[in-house]
User: Fold this.
Amino acid sequence: MKSKIILCLAVVTALLSLSFRDFSKVIIWDTAGYYVYLPAGIIYHDLGKLEFYEQVNREYKTADRDWYGIYQDSLTGRRWTKYPVGVAIMELPFFLIAHGLSQVFPEENAIYGYGKIFQYGVACACLFWFLAGLYCLKRFLLRYFDDAVVALTLFLVIYATNLFNYGLLEGGLSHGISFALFSFLLLLTDNWYRSGRRTALLGLAMILGLIIITRPTNVVAALIPLLWGIRNRQSVVKRWSFLRSQLSSISWALVLCIAVVFIQLSYWHYITGNWVLYSYKGEKLDLTNPHIFEGLFHYDKGWFIYTPLALCFVVGLMFVYRYHRAQFLSLILFLLANIYVVYSWDFWRYGGGFGARPLTESYAFLAFSLAALVDRSFNWKRGWKIALICFFVLITMLNLFQTYQFRYGILPPIWIREQIYWDVFGKYKI
Assistant:
């Protein structure tokens, strides 16, 4: 019951968040790059040239320069958006609803596909998937923890992390949608290993494909279904026997996953004639030169600086190891691999934003370690309980206040030095 109350609170918060949105400024910057597939393919039938996009930028100021995130192939002359197609696929149902509504309620002086109806559709898409992800995460956690533990865990994941910003306030980026996909993957993984049903495996494969074409570096999420339930040599032997019994289903699942990824590959082939394209010109993933310390501790978006709850994610792994050993290996290897890959990006700050945004979706998996910590804390002495509760209250207040600072330009979106951070700390206006 308590976890249902938290979900209801999240729904109310989501609805309230709509009242704070400027629906002429939803489809901007990266959001516009993810979204452009939909109007280009469905309205303008111009996936190759994107000739309408220059006017969109002039009218709606989607970015501070023309063709932001869009490049032209020197051989074919066609243009591509650097952003993967997964977000657009997840937005598609809401785009079609907006498309239909726009026929009934036409918007004057609006570029078709970018008026308020469509901007509203993008915002609602992200809210819907974020809430769906929370629902699936709740269902999963209740299999391992009691309702009170799950309720507190969900509350902290929503309100004490930058998921509050990327799930509720900045619809159209990949992070809120990826959080939902991670939650779906977790639930389907657990379903498959419990039941052995082909439908669960096929769903898992489809979600993994969507994860890859939403944010390719999130392919490390595959470690969860690969290693879930592995705790010792005996479990490896048992897993091998299970996989052998599932070979037919696994074959179909691989085909389905590849078919989903093929959507992105087909787009690249249409634009350039090549099946594989490195779409992020001028940016690169350099696995030989990670920026892990900066990513975790720098005043400019450091994970532990802006999301202190991350400390609980890490500490909670000790309790996973002790009390939920079968889940430990998959979670610890995912966390290490994800941090390494995320901070091997040469521009480790990842542009303007609040906190460590490329780690936001991983909270779906790390909620398990947080729940393990919360669960054991219920047995602590009163003094330690009070200390932990005070910590949770403080970091929740800090997250919500700094989200406010970020939204209103008090906390800069990028290039934050130590002096700047402390100069604006606690200030509600400039």
